[in-house]
Amino acid sequence: MSEERVAARTWSSEALRELRAAAQRFSRHEYHDKNERWKLIANEIGRGKRDCYTKYKELKSSQSQQRDGGETRASASASTSGSSSASTSARSTPTDASETASNTSSGASEKNSTSTRAERRVLRAKSSRKNVITQDENLISAGSLRSLGSRASDTINKQKLISGSARSLGACKPKNIMVDESKVSRDSFDGTIDEDDEIDSNGSVSSRRSVIVRPIRTDEVRDMLDVLLGQPKRSAGLGPSWRKQGFFFGESPQPRYGLVQLKGGPCGVLAVVQAFVLLELMYGIHTPCAEHWERPTASEQRAALTEALTTVIWQAADRSARVCTYDLSQERSALGEMSVHQVKARAQVRDLIAEHLDVFMLREGPGVLLLLFSVMMTRGDVSVDMDAGMQHGENALIGRHNYAGQELVNLLLFGRASSNVFNGTRNLGDEQEKVVLRGVDRTCEIGFLTLFEHYGYMRVGSRLKNPLFPIWVICSESHYSVLFADTPDCLQSAEPFDLFYFDQLGNQDEEYRLTVNPAPEVPVEHSTDSSRLVSPIDDCIRTRWPGATVDWNGSDPLL
């Protein structure tokens, strides 16, 4: 193997930092299955499971040796040469998050002059998360806290999530290693590079060679429809509101950041994608336009939508993803005409979405359908059934009234089709007949609030109530919409702050800015009296900020 190929497989300092962050995120205290834990870590950073595990053991061993060596040197001598050696060793292999933070801050002064407001907002968002952890008791009612389980365990998990690098600790950067899947099976994939793969000047394998493209199979269409609709309704197929809905932006006077929903039905899908679009516009790495997020250009709209769709698909991936597309040159667009692209890296998903974005953005096109099939095939129908705790074909992700169920919203929000919104898992029954109820396995980038909590039907856990970024999908009156802030300060503020509300189905031609006072002198009493003339959006907000007052600033509250 050539020196270039060997170099492509070595671990850069950035890759080592990502490995440490992933190991912290998928903690052995939370992921007891060692094999599953290292599969998740490998998928997070785009390398082989065995490669990651071996390297992490080397790092731990090296760290231990350095610590022992440092103690020996300190006891033997405090000479200048000893100090120099220890300093050199510390620079060669950073051993903890504080040193990484120190290295980062050392270059901050050089970059300060060119730092964008978007970058500063991302840093503020991450910083604010640390403060929110210590104030959770003030943000969630005592009854809710009791239902969420151990606070100590949850706090530890949150701190581990925050300590990683990059936005949300997710795999946001292109991976350096891509594998030709025609030569390495899914089950045996270990992140190595085949001798015949072409490596570019940056040490990356050509993404085109590692993408498998094929027509979708008839049995795959059947299985996906079983998951979406349930076997009894499969023959009826998806209605036109789902089949003819693309991801396109509104025109003036509608907000330029807003997607448009044509008919009732797929609001859950549109709301989640809208939330990730806003995340990219306000806090994104690839679409840094925080200075004018409410007035993005056409190119910034496309870039934000590309990243949003990429994130929704990739977060459902284990070790590979599936991206479904249509060929615009084909006259028909039946389900059986889809092409399936099988890829190994997030960057490849982004490239495919960018290449086929015009199809996803067609006004009455198959955008929603393509995203649903991409996410479900990426997660796998068996995994979706296991997430939801249901038998294949017995239940459906789309409910009886043609709306997205909680399982589908969760699948799009954080990549798992769990039926619940509490933290972690809960067990029902004894050991012999135990039923495991799955909830939210990590703190999410995008949050979720629901009117059902106001009426006492469910409680949303802190991993969705307190997301990494101040954006929430709202479930109110059988409809999904979005609530968001352009600054993370609201996650911890006791002072009044502004939230923005957007409904993609409401033909919204004005901006709804709501001023929320989380600690008024006279808190609003909780009431489920249906005769009150109170906006259900207000009631949703008060599930997150109990007793808060909400001022619609001259706009008519949506009742």
From TrEMBL:
Annotated region (Disordered), positions in chain: 57-129
Name listed for the protein in its UniProt record: Ubiquitin carboxyl-terminal hydrolase MINDY-3
Ranges of compositional bias, category Polar residues: 99-116
Alphabetic keyword roster: Hydrolase
Swiss-Prot/TrEMBL GO biological process terms: protein K48-linked deubiquitination; proteolysis
Domain of life: Eukaryota
Family: Belongs to the MINDY deubiquitinase family. FAM188 subfamily.
InterPro entries for this protein: MINDY-3/4_CD, MINY3/4, SANT/Myb
Ranges of biased composition (kind: Low complexity): 72-98
Gene Ontology MF, one: K48-linked deubiquitinase activity
